[in-house]
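Page 47, continued from p. 46.
Same chain as before, 389 aa.
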Amino acid sequence: MIPRRRGTIDVFTLDDCVREYFNLNPQLIKLRQHYTLLRVLDFLRDALGVKSYSEILRTDAKSLITALQKFVNSCIEKGQSQKSIRFKLYLVRSFLGFYDIEINPKKIKIPRKAGRSRIDRIPTLAELQKLLMGTRSSRMRLAIMLMALCGLRISEALSVRREWIDLERGFLTLPAEATKIGKPREIPIPTELREELKRYLENYPHKRGYLFCAEGNPEKRIPKNRFYENYVNLLKRLGLDAKTPDGTAYQLHPHVFRKWYRTMLESAGVNKLLIDLWMGHNSGIEKHYYLPTPEIIKQEFEKADKALRIFGNVLQAMPQATEAKIAAVENALREREAEFRKKFEEKLKEFERIKERMEIYENTLKTILEKQGIKTKDDVDKYLEKFPF
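Result:
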């Protein structure tokens, strides 16, 4: 079975060509990119007037290019971005290329101004603090911190496993299958995130598995769309749900945390090639020849760690004289607390004695009134009429 947004797809109901392609490219399903490919193939099938995906492969190249151009035009009408359209074309061209059908990308025209361009901004420190302090979920808090303090993409953050975290060395290792570009990377863990991970792992019941796993199953991670729904609910609850100028996304969509990470590092003067390595960005031939030593990484990370602070500076060890003063104040406070507690208990006993006396007086008065035949308010009024005042 293959997951789909609504239920699942039975593999045996797919055409042989698609089933074979998915079997040899399981990464597509793992990254949930098969949704997009199937939607494009559905469009081509309808545009070409054929009944199956297999018949698409028997169509001549000119007809395929025409159908793909119609698909591009349809995406533009829906306001999709140029980046999104190119990614969809890449998926379908890879599928067709698998069956030796080459489509020249220059034959398909994508206007430079395709779709609406989104103007992003990075979150302020106040907004980050409000998000982290406002969430009621330790998982949501940790996920946001992984994106902001390690520069992870949302899919990478949700894919982090317990065994990839080395708190002793202070590094998070992402294997190739967990990254977007299919290359492993090692990311230093900033101080604030390390403390958060320590707290989170104290209550994590499994020795291995996804940090953000389904309940009772550490080998099944939570779906990205469920996390995103919870994240949007958090934005709305905190009043941080403002949209971008073009209205296509929330201003604080998850990817801006990754942009905040890079902005902070570049502002701190961290080596740009090292930032590319930590973020999993392609930076040309230079990155293949740039192999920083542990000393260089340590030196650059010291700059990065100072910049990647959401809640301010890390507390430094206090001088012994200051610790002694604090201890003296704490002892004095404890003595005063004991003194106040003693006085409070004495007053409480005195109050209990007064309460007992009041009960005795009340019962006595009630007995006297009953002997006089006074039981109601009217009886009291008649009784008082006997005494002129």
